[in-house]
Specification:
Layout: H1 22-28, H2 48-57, E1 62-65, E2 68-71, H3 76-95, E3 99-103, E4 108-111, E5 114-116, E6 120-124, E7 147-151, H4 158-171, E8 175-180, E9 185-191, E10 194-198, E11 203-205, E12 214-216, H5 217-224
Parallel strand pairs: 7-8
Antiparallel strand pairs: 1-2, 3-6, 4-5, 6-7, 8-9, 9-10, 11-12
Helix pairs in contact: 3-5
């Protein structure tokens, strides 16, 4: 009989892990730069408890992937863009009490052995146990956002984002926005293989997740770059 993997357990190690090269690991994680992978605890051995301890006392925030700590790729400008988006969400949620919004430091156990931290995330009350925010005593809860927003940084690779999207939709995320500060455009995903591009100056729509919510990319980036008007 196979063992049941708990949400806090690290996935069982592949028997070939001892022979795996650093290049293999980086490719598996999405061809990410090596300077985003924590060397201690050793990759492939990190437990959930270690993830909690390290994120509580060190920065930047680490995600938990394949029993490995992967630092979030967030620069100051990307964080500023995420704050602006979060502020827009906050104004909407003051008028429509549909759920809660969290930022880039909020790691969530979206799948067994996977802890992800979108740059901004919306969690509907209907998706949360008891319709309430997770307890303070649970710093990395096993919850899944309804909307995950990723503000792309220079070290985010195409394969890394593909992997994140697969995990998000496997976990039950309904909507993923990928926003590219370099192009001022975005891609909207409603499934792993269903994407709608939003051009420069376009508008993101909350759809059924945030009914009536719209986000002007021009307004976000004009504010982020402090453009008059």
């Amino acid at each position: 009989m196979s063992a049941v993997l708990s949400p806090t357990a690290a996935p069982p190690l592949d028997p070939t892990v001892a022979r795996r090269t650093l290049a293999d690991l980086l490719h598996q994680l999405g061809d990410i730069p090596p300077d985003r992978v924590r060397a201690e605890p050793p990759p492939g051995t990190v437990t959930f408890e270690q993830l909690v301890q390290i994120n509580e006392r060190q920065s930047p925030t680490c995600e938990w992937v394949d029993s490995t700590l992967v630092e979030k790729a967030v620069g100051m400008f990307e964080s500023w863009v995420a704050i602006i988006i979060g502020w827009k969400f906050g104004r909407y949620l003051e008028e429509h009490d549909l759920g809660m919004m969290v930022g880039e430091a909020a790691v969530m156990r979206i799948l067994p052995g996977v802890g992800r931290a979108p740059d901004v995330a919306f969690l509907a009350w209907a998706s949360l146990p008891g319709g309430r925010p997770p307890s303070r005593s649970d710093p990395i809860p096993a919850v899944v956002p309804d909307l995950a927003v990723e503000v792309l940084s220079a070290s985010n690779t195409r394969r890394e984002m593909e992997r994140k999207r697969r995990e998000y939709f496997q976990a039950g995320v309904k909507l993923v926005w990928e926003i590219d500060p370099q192009t001022r455009a975005a891609n909207v995903y409603t499934a792993v293989d269903k994407m709608t591009p939003v051009p420069v100056g376009g508008t993101l729509d909350g759809g059924s997740v945030l009914p009536g919510f719209q986000l002007s990319l021009k307004a976000v980036f004009d504010r982020a770059e402090r453009q008059p008007g």
